[in-house]
Amino acid sequence: MVWLRQIRRKQPNHRLPQIVIISVGFLLILIGKADVTAARYMHGGIVEVVAPLYSIITVPIDSIETLFEGVQTVASSRTEAKRLAVENERLRKWQQLAESLEVENRQLRSVLGAVVPPDWSAITARVIVVPAGNFTHSMILEHGPGYKIPSGSAVVTSEGLVGYIISSGKHFSRVLLISDVNARIPVILSDSSWPGLAVGKNGLTLELDFLPAESKPSDNEAVVTSGHGGLLPAGILVGRVSSISKEQVLVTPSVELRKLSFVTILTRKEATDFMLDPEQNNSLYSPLIERKNERLFEGLNSREILQ
Amino acid sequence: MLTQTKPNTHNNYADFSKLFLVFGVGVVIVFTEIALAKWPFFFSAAPMLSLCYIFTLVLLRPQLMPVISIVLIALLFELMGGDMLGVRVTAFYIATLIIRRRVAVNEQADFIAHWANFSLICFAVVLFRLFVFLSLYFAITNLSMLAFQIGVSILVFPIFFVTMNLIFSILGSPIKQDD
User: Fold this and answer.
1) ipTM for the complex?
2) Does residue A165 sit in helix, strand or coil?
3) Which of A189, A230, B26, B60 could bridge across to B73 with cysteines, CB 3.0–4.6 Å?
4) What is the value of pTM for the model shown?
5) Contacts with B109 from chain A: Cβ below 8 Å
6) CA-CA distance, B105 to A221, in Å (whole number)?
């Protein structure tokens, strides 16, 4: 009981600073929640300073991961080769189908006289920080200097949507993953075109909210961005329906968020850039190539009819 | 002639270089914790190495771990790791107060007792963060990942504790603490 008496004797001297520090902690929580602009700028500035140091320190840890991956690859190379052969065959069929669909799509657009929407620019970025805790799913990307990345820009890989930019600096940007509890992605079901909202759950699946009662999502049905709100481009694969129950529809993201190394940031191209230099930009969504004297269908050309 | 001398309180305080070194190691540990999350196994559930470090230091050498170091280490994780701002800082500070008042005073406690105390602290820290998250977002996060994170942190603690003990015994005799 001696120690208890000592503590009681010392308490009055220590209580005030303790209360102050805890109050400061709660104040920080409130500032973080209120999303104050100054705090966001400060946050971005600190990341700009600390991230290069972090990159140096994490080299050995990345090397260990690479080593493990190498061992795993060697161990499973035979199985992997078989799987790849099957996948390759399947992809070849899909490629043929995609080529024919692309031609058909171009022809239909020309016939309808559809206006191509303003294009998007693609910036490749390296993932340097992934979520270490389960309360916030966000990543820090290193994209190098010279890019002006607005908040809300979509972040994708070849497999689909990863998330969107929530703050950006000169060299680094922070991306909110689609799995975060604050992420709300306007989507549509690919087969039925019913709109909904893909909501993160801080886990490895998303939940489809605000889906109309008449909609009947099917298992493994693709879920793509709808483009509503104008923030994200339409048609990017978000995931596939993995579980359907009366209470909720769950979607498994098409991107394996745990294994990201490089991503692509999509930014809306400035109108002037788009008009001045439409063909030289290496964008994912290039405008349609207009061909003169193009025959759309055998024996029929809308341009000739119009002339 | 007798002169009244001031009591020797220097043993209770480490000099600035030692404090800075301990803080520097803390920064490296925070970065390691964040980097571990890049392994798919630890995605969004990396072991709380910084808590292990703070707990061990406060237990073994409290004079080397001032409040400012704890706050900065927690804040660095929040800024770099993208955690909720202020939550980890508050949780770690309260945890430190509890360790100093309830855990560190019992000098007779053996390793198992420290391990059990760390498990409780770890659980309490995650529970506090969960409570704040629940209050701010009215949503519940993935509990299995949280349980995994607590479990891994508890498993990592003995390695950390033994390593730190070893380092301190190699570096020299412990700094004497006055009652």
Assistant:
1) 0.72
2) strand
3) B26
4) 0.68
5) none
6) 60
